[in-house]
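ugh ok fine here u go
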Amino acid sequence: MPPREHVEFLAASPNRVALLRLLRDDPRRPSSLTDEGSFSRSTVHRNLDGFVERDWVRKDGPRYALTAVGRRVLDKYESLLATVDVVHEHRPLFAHLGEAAADLPVAAVDDATVVTASAGNPHAPLSHYADELAEIDSERFLGVSPIVSEVFNEASRRFVASGTEMELVVDAATLETARSECPDALDRARRAENFSLLVADAVSVGLALFDRRVFVGAYDDGGLRALLDGENRPLREWAKDHYESVRADAEPVDGEA
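structure:
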């Protein structure tokens, strides 16, 4: 039987998933499944036969037990449902992150705050970022920016003054914009001993990694469309890996070490 048919069989009825979930805890008699799940006897027996045929469940005397195969199928199916649920709920974030979202763990998003721009509040992500930056104290900052941000420029003054070790990667276009639109801010940062500026060929995702906090910015047409804000380990590990991959192709600006 092709794998797709197994998936279609499981997805065709919520009763099948519910029955497997009941069997995940302990082996059960059909009568127990009927009572606990409020299923009809015919529903229980028909689906148990289908499970046994697929080796998802085995009959052990009067009871039915979930097999290792069945447990694996159920776990992966539930993981798929969770992924679809998170991606659907936060469509703007994933859409604007583009290829960078391909390996973003669901747990990184599910356990974090997502702020999305809307017609009624187009600046919601930027406002959230500005408010949170004002409250952060950190010994180190690692960042990537595809735009020139006045919000970050203002915050960076405090971080530079407090001695926060800062490293920022921008692309060539962003660097040229900074040189033309805010040369004073760029010069102040460049003269600071605790600030390093690097330039990469292309940058599409915004990152701000602090000691414990991570911000991920999703952009479109130069505007911040969605912001991911969290402290969970999956998010931090993903952000660190993404930063290191961007930095690997970057070079110090004007000979910075």
